């Protein structure tokens, strides 16, 4: 039997053991459960002896996101309350064969976790009483992965290193990596459980290069759904592309027919750890903060009036003859119409990693953006911001990564199979 057949047989056995009795009619090939079905399972494992139906989960716990589909989960999924982003490097001597086995293990584990199921007999039970809580696990490949696995010919041109920017203060130890994993959930224990499983399933094949933790507002914390705020108190994400936009897929996902067919339905993630200099920012009067951003802090509306969703009037002048939205305002410089239509789907987490020796908070934004081509999305916008964004004086880019995130797996596939075995 060939190595490939051995690996396939191992995967079948792993999937059979892990999914037996959990998927019912869905089977090991495609565990895709509705919110009620997925939510009731893991919570029922904690049912007291004596039988009876497990109590219904609250709405937050019952949320389920499918593992399989045209795109990986965690891209268009609504912002989750908790998140982890982690990069791995393949171990010395590990190559394509080890990467195949790793992605099979990770995919099998992610599918169980996202359905609210325990992973194997040795599951720690950290998330035992919770439902899926909208858990997503998303996988990507860095440029170095293709060197390590002998797949340089399949490395997309879009993975060319990002250009240097003048505001960068990048820490190489917290940047890049062979493999990248994004975890999001609406419960902190569920998110941590997924992180722990992914780390353990890496085994001897890969070691953690860096890991960062983030958070957003919890579901239900506001009277109605609202755009999230960042740690500067600003509404963040108003002009995000929407799945209902006619050109959304073209901007965010890789279309069929490209040079690398394995990336069809995939996207490119740019990840930046952006430190916010909050002490300096909070010293600014409200009016100056709003002029730096170009929007009202109270509701996110542009300074030219209207509501959060009103298009800024970039030509409007004030009584002093100057633009109402300053020429160096963040909202003006980052606007798609100011960047040849360049757009990206921003899906960040905030972070706070304690107080530094100088008494300033180590806090800011785990900036994650998605696009079909970073050379037409992130890069031109960041170049423009780098040249004159008023916000630059209050932020510092401290880590960076760029990853190819393949499309979602079909039934019977693991993430990245079309790359590794195509």
Automatic annotation (TrEMBL):
Catalyses which reaction(s): heme b + 2 H(+) = protoporphyrin IX + Fe(2+)
Keyword Nucleotide-binding: no
Compartments where found: Cell envelope
The keyword Glycoprotein is assigned to this record: no
Compositionally biased residues, Basic and acidic residues: 310-319
Dyp-type peroxidase N-terminal domain boundaries: 72-216
Keywords: Heme, Iron, Lyase, Metal-binding, Oxidoreductase, Peroxidase, Signal
InterPro entries given in the database record: Dimeric_a/b-barrel, Dyp_perox_C, Dyp_perox_N, Dyp_peroxidase, EfeB/EfeN, TAT_signal
Region (Disordered): 295-319
Cofactor(s) of this protein: heme b
Predominant place of localization: other
EC number: 1.11.1.-
Residue stretches making up the Dyp-type peroxidase C-terminal domain: 227-408
Entries under SUPFAM superfamilies matching the protein: Dimeric alpha+beta barrel
Manner of cofactor binding, per the entry note: Binds 1 heme b (iron(II)-protoporphyrin IX) group non-covalently per subunit.
Role summary: Involved in the recovery of exogenous heme iron. Extracts iron from heme while preserving the protoporphyrin ring intact.
NCBIfam families per UniProt: Dyp_perox_fam, tat_substr_1
Protein family membership: Belongs to the DyP-type peroxidase family.
Name recorded for this polypeptide: Deferrochelatase
Gene that encodes it: efeB
């Amino acid at each position: 039997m060939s190595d490939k057949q051995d690996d396939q047989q191992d995967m079948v056995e792993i999937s059979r053991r892990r999914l037996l009795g959990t998927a019912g009619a869905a089977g090991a090939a495609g565990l895709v459960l509705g919110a009620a079905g997925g939510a009731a399972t893991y919570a029922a494992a904690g049912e007291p002896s004596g039988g009876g139906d497990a109590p219904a989960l609250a709405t937050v716990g019952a949320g389920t996101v499918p593992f399989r589909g045209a795109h990986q989960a965690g891209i268009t999924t609504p912002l989750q309350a908790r998140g982890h982003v982690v990069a791995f490097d393949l171990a010395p001597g590990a190559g394509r064969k080890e990467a195949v086995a790793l992605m099979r293990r990770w995919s099998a584990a992610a599918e169980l976790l996202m359905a609210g199921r325990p992973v194997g007999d040795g599951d720690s039970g950290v998330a035992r009483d919770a439902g899926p809580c909208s858990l997503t696990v998303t996988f990507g490949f860095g440029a170095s992965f293709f060197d390590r696995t002998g797949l340089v010919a399949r490395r997309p041109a879009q993975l060319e290193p990002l250009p240097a920017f003048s505001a960068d203060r990048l820490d190489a130890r917290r940047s890049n990596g062979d493999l990248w994993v994004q975890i999001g959930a609406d419960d902190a224990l569920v998110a941590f459980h997924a992180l722990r499983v992914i780390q353990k399933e890496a085994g001897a094949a890969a070691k953690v290069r860096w890991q960062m933790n983030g958070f957003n507002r919890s579901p239900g914390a506001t009277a109605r759904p609202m755009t999230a705020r960042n740690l500067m108190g600003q509404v963040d994400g108003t002009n995000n592309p929407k799945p209902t936009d006619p050109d959304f897929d073209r901007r965010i996902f890789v279309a069929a027919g490209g040079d690398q067919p394995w990336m069809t339905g995939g996207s490119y993630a740019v990840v930046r750890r952006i430190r916010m200099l909050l002490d300096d920012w909070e010293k600014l009067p409200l009016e100056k903060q709003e002029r730096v951003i170009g929007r009202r802090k109270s509701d996110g509306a542009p300074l030219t009036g209207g509501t959060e969703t009103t298009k800024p009037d970039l030509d409007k002048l004030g009584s002093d003859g100057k633009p109402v939205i300053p020429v160096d305002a963040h909202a003006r410089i980052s606007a798609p119409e100011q960047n040849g239509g360049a757009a990206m789907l921003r899906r960040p987490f905030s972070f706070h990693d304690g107080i530094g020796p100088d008494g300033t908070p180590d806090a800011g934004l785990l900036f994650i953006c998605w696009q079909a081509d970073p050379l037409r999305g992130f890069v031109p916008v960041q170049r423009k911001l780098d040249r004159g964004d008023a916000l630059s004086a209050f932020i510092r880019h401290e880590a960076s990564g760029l990853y190819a995130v393949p499309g979602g797996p079909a039934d019977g596939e693991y993430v990245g199979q079309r790359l590794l075995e195509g």
